[in-house]
Design a protein that fits this description.
- The complex is a heterotrimer of chains A (about 375), B (about 300) and C (about 300).
- Chain A contains 9 helices and 21 strands.
- Chain A is an alpha+beta fold and about 375 residues long.
- Chain A folds into 2 domains: about 220 residues, 3-Layer(aba) Sandwich (Rossmann fold); about 120 residues, Nucleic acid-binding proteins (OB fold (Dihydrolipoamide Acetyltransferase, E2P)), CATH 2.40.50.
- In chain A, helix 3 packs across helix 4.
- Chain A is elongated.
- By secondary structure, chain B is mainly α.
- The radius of gyration of chain C is 28 Å and the shape is globular.
- The relative contact order of chain C is 0.11.
- Chain C has 2 domains: about 60 residues, no CATH class; about 240 residues, Orthogonal Bundle (MetI-like fold).
- Chain C has about 300 residues and is mainly alpha-helical.
- Classes of the chains: A alpha+beta (about 375), B mainly alpha (about 300), C mainly alpha (about 300).
- The interface between B and C is large, with 100 and 98 residues.
Chain lengths: ~375, ~300, ~300
């Protein structure tokens, strides 16, 4: 096992820059998830760590050694692919042991390692089957088993759950987490699904357009996003961004959303934002869960306003409500018993203690 | 068939349903009728070969009903299968075809692997070139090849003309391009991740080819092997041009030249020889029909 | 890549020479491996296809004893010979007629096979492909025997209907018909199998959608089947055109070009002139006349095949 470090890593294809200078330190035993929309460079980064892509510039280090020109087989890594890439003509056991057999490990050790990995992944009964006879989830386990038996320094996962149906995906997510708790191998995991990223990672790396937007624990990313991209990407339904500006109102600082709607900021927030110029175009970032039905008794910092709902989506444990504020679509989450109806007026409460304020032009969270 | 139903128009729902299913039955009957007709057309020559091969010369020259065997005899088969000359043809054909299959595979598989997976300078052009080579017919090359071999023979003193083994050199020009082409198609259809997984598992290029690509593309390999064998077995023009002594002949040339003696046609023996000559490809076809057809259609549907 | 690395200072400075060397090694290794893997193929094509093809152009410019350069002498000599023009006409007639009938019969039979219940299709397909499996030299012998002037089984059968006897191979027109018939018999199964594969690849939903839109049987073929199969039809037809045009076995065995050279194709005539009469340059010259039509067909095939490649 080992730590992994990326130093100013660049990948250029002809005239397209897929990865534009990435710095990343992954410590031993850590579970890192690279997340971002398709084309953000996350898979390319993973494949460069694996050695499947040459790096154009920069350095990649595994366990302190620069591995830029080390072929994949000598990097001591294992990879799980999106389509599993199981060898169709080999049994499960043969699939798992292929790498060891190529390295001429003693037969007894191969057998021991395969048995152990199969036990860990609960696929002991399937050991003599061919991939064709396995379900998607079982194939996924075999692909992981193939990585585990090698006992590598680093595990690399390239969107391993994308080909599974929703239910199985949740189940396998938990499996992967359990396996990592037992094996503790440094893991780099690529996904486009922010839920997977949040649930699996020790730290999440959000990537966009070939750059790292933010690195942090799931909670940090959720509660303290650094940029508009991260704020919008993490969380579902996504954070609302409402154009707004600050204004002074009798010694207090107000935030004005529309001609009708403006709220006083809570004292802590007011102190933080007071330095901003009042003319600057800003965005109020507020998550749907902080836009709820109004209660008789309101916490400090929670303000109410009236609106007319466009559409409601009952989800069972909550109802999503959609409405517009001067053309900006906004989503809120209300109690299913709050009486939200399509086209009906409703009083909503906004929790400004959990608000974010963003610069509209730069997208920076202030 | 179903046009009739359209012309009638559908006065009511019920009638229309009835006419639909009646259409189906009629379409099916017509289909079977024509299929029987075409199958008969297809099978008459081989069946006639079999009928004639079971007749004695006396029965053939008696001009009885040609479609029936009145006194079936295996004497033609006995005669041919005990004739050293015929066995020599068979042996020549077999050895040529088998060696050509092996040579073809040894050339095609590595080349197809390189062309499908290792992008290198000129690889696309070479792949196109391979396909074009496949379109060059034997009848365009037999004269220059004949002269070429004659010149080389004079120059080096190595006997090339009138030797069966020269066919081992020439036949691959017919088999290699097509086999390479369809193997490129089969290899290209293997997901890229599979070789990446193999590379990460520590396999070299050669190990990836031998232990992953060849086993996974085995159906394609079988199809290519069948193709190479049948083409070599059936080739007629090259051996006709390059071999002239009876002991160097392969089957097709042997049968057409030696069994036809002047104006005396021993049809019983000719048909027996032809049937025996057609037997190996037919047997392969009977057992490996799906691979045979896959190989046949692969040229246009892959790549 | 190495240039950019140098700027990185401390770390790169130490690693740089090793890096550069190993990078070269790697690049060298991959293309070297690829080169050796394709080398036998390249040698084979260069020595036994490309070289003879060019050599035949050279041969065609020599006189019969191959001592003297005669330029286009052989070509102008051919242009003056009536037999040559007969061969040109017969080759075109043979190839075009045979391909049209092969394509038509193949298309029709493929439809019939596609029409019947799936479980029976294998059996029928198996029987219908037999002509393609038998080596043509062998099956043509059976046809030769079926066409035999005195013992023809066809004439025996036709005599019951008061027809014949037909001089299958004795009369120029009948001989031309016979060689085409045998070629159609041999080649139609190939079309059938290609069309059948294409028919199977047309999704059923398209036919269902067309049926709901009110298309009848004929309209479904015209608006769905044919457009979906257009590419396969083109490739198969052009490919067959090449093979048929260059055919040797059937004519050689059935008629050897007779009667009176009326059934000679380029291939059989080139064989007779170049090998049997030992006029190698003239034979090479005759077979070179196949090149233009082959080249045109090959270009179109290549276009269609690469189009297919782009689609998939």
């Amino acid at each position: 096992m080992a730590d992994v470090a990326l130093r100013k890593v660049v990948k250029r294809y002809d005239d397209v820059e897929a990865v534009r200078g990435i710095d990343l330190d992954i410590s031993d035993h850590e579970f890192i998830v690279l997340v971002g929309p398709s084309g953000c460079g996350k898979s390319t980064t993973l494949r460069m760590i694996a050695g499947l892509e040459d790096i154009t510039d920069g350095d990649i280090m595994i366990g302190g050694d620069v591995v830029n020109d080390v072929p994949p087989k000598d990097r001591d890594i294992a990879m799980v692919f999106q389509n599993y890439a199981l060898y169709p003509h080999m049994t499960v056991a043969e699939n798992m042991s292929f790498g060891l057999r190529l390295k001429h490990y003693p037969k007894a050790e191969i057998k021991a390692r395969v048995t152990e990995a199969a036990r860990l992944l609960d696929i002991t009964d399937l050991i003599d089957r061919k991939p064709k006879q396995l379900s998607g989830g079982q194939r996924q386990r075999v692909a992981m088993g193939r990585a585990i038996v090698r006992n590598p320094k680093v595990f690399l996962f390239d969107e391993p759950l994308s080909n599974l149906d929703a239910k199985l995906r949740v189940q396998m997510r938990i499996e992967i987490k359990k396996v990592h708790q037992k094996v503790r191998t440094t893991t780099v995991y690529v996904t486009h699904d922010q839920v997977e990223a949040m649930t699996l990672a020790d730290r999440v790396v959000v990537m966009n357009k070939g750059r790292i937007e933010q690195i942090g624990t799931p909670n940090e990313l959720y509660h303290k996003p650094a940029t508009r991209f991260v704020a919008g990407f993490i969380g579902s339904p996504a954070m609302n961004f409402i154009p707004c500006r600050l204004e002074d109102a009798g010694g207090k600082l107000n935030i004005r959303l529309t001609d009708r709607i403006s709220f006083p900021l809570p004292p802590a927030r007011a102190a933080r934002y007071n330095v901003l110029p009042r003319t600057e175009k800003l965005l109020l970032g507020i998550r749907p869960e902080h836009l709820t039905e109004s209660h008789a008794h309101l916490e400090p910092g929670v303000e109410t306003f009236d609106t007319v709902l466009d559409v409601t989506e009952p989800m069972g444990m909550e109802t999503l409500v959609y409405f517009g504020l001067e053309g900006t679509p906004v989503c809120g989450r209300v109690d299913p018993n709050a009486g939200a109806k399509d086209g009906a007026p409703m009083r909503l409460a906004v929790d400004l203690n959990n608000m974010h304020l963003l610069n509209e032009a730069t997208g920076a969270v202030l | 068939m179903s046009m009739l139903a359209i012309d009638k128009g559908g006065p009511s729902r019920k009638v229309k349903y009835g006419s639909m299913s009646r259409d189906r039955t009629w379409a099916l009957r017509w289909s079977y009728f024509f299929l029987v007709l075409f199958a008969a057309f297809s099978l008459i020559p081989p069946i006639y070969m079999l009928i004639t091969s079971l007749k004695s010369s006396a029965e053939i020259s008696a001009a009885t009903n040609p479609w029936w065997v009145f006194h079936p005899t295996l004497s033609n088969y006995f005669e041919l299968l005990t004739s050293n000359q015929f066995l020599r043809f068979f042996w020549n054909s077999a050895i040529v075809s088998i060696v050509v299959v092996i040579v073809t595979m040894l050339i095609s598989i590595p080349a197809a692997f390189a062309l499908a997976r290792m992008k290198f300078w000129g690889s696309a052009t070479l792949a196109t070139g391979v396909f074009l080579t496949y379109l060059i017919p034997d009848s365009l090359l037999f004269i220059p090849l004949f002269k070429m071999l004659a010149v080389i023979q004079d120059f080096t003193g190595i006997a090339l003309l009138n030797r069966w083994y020269v066919l081992l050199l020439i036949y691959p020009t017919l088999t290699v391009p097509f086999c390479t082409w369809i193997m490129i198609g089969y290899f290209a259809s293997i997901p890229k991740e599979l070789d990446e997984a193999a590379i990460i598992d520590g396999a070299s290029w050669l190990q990836t080819l031998m232990r992953i690509f060849i086993p996974v593309a085995l159906p394609g390999l079988i199809a290519a092997t069948i193709f190479a064998f049948t083409v070599s077995w059936a080739q007629f023009l090259y051996p006709l041009v390059f071999t002239t002594s009876v002991d160097q002949f392969v089957l097709p040339v042997g049968i057409t030249t030696t069994l036809i003696k002047g104006d005396v046609f021993n049809w019983g023996q000719i048909m027996t020889g032809a049937l025996l000559g057609a037997a190996p490809p037919l047997i392969i076809y009977a057992f490996l029909m799906d691979y045979y057809i896959a190989g046949l259609t692969a040229g246009a549907t892959k790549g | 890549m190495a240039d950019a690395v140098v700027e990185q200072g401390r770390l790169a400075r130490a690693a740089s020479p090793r890096k550069r060397a190993s990078l070269h090694n790697k690049l060298g290794r991959k293309s070297t491996v690829a080169f050796f893997l394709t080398l036998p193929l390249i040698l084979l094509i260069a020595a036994l296809v490309l070289y003879p093809a060019l050599y035949s152009v050279h041969l065609a410019t020599l006189n019969k004893s191959m001592q003297k350069f005669v330029g286009f002498g052989n070509f102008t000599f051919l242009f003056k010979r009536e037999t040559f023009w007969m061969v040109v006409k017969q080759s075109c007639l043979f190839a075009i007629t045979a391909v049209i009938f092969k394509a038509l019969i193949g298309f029709i039979v493929a439809h019939f096979v596609h029409n019947i219940p799936a479980k029976g299709q294998r059996k029928w397909r198996g029987m219908l492909l037999v002509p393609w499996v038998i080596p043509p030299a062998m099956s043509t012998l059976a046809w030769l025997w079926l066409f035999d002037p005195s013992y023809s089984a066809f004439n025996y059968t036709l005599s019951f209907f008061g027809i014949g006897p037909i001089p299958w191979l004795g009369d120029a027109s009948w001989a031309r018909f016979s060689v085409i018939l045998v070629n159609v018999w041999y080649g139609a199964p190939f079309f059938m199998i290609m069309y059948l594969a294409a028919l199977k690849s047309v999704p059923d939903q398209l036919y269902e959608a067309a049926a709901i839109d009110g298309a009848n049987w004929w309209q479904r073929i015209w608006f769905i089947t044919l457009p979906m199969m257009r590419n396969i039809i083109a490739i198969t037809t052009l490919f067959s055109l090449i093979v048929t045009f260059a055919n040797f076995d059937i004519v050689r065995i059935l008629t050897s070009g007779g009667p009176l050279d009326s059934t000679h194709l380029f291939a059989t005539w080139a064989f007779q002139v170049g090998i049997q009469s030992s006029d190698i340059p003239l034979g090479a010259c005759v077979s070179l006349f196949m090149v233009p039509i082959l080249a045109v067909a090959a270009i179109f095939i290549l276009r269609d095949v690469s189009k297919r490649g782009n689609e998939s």
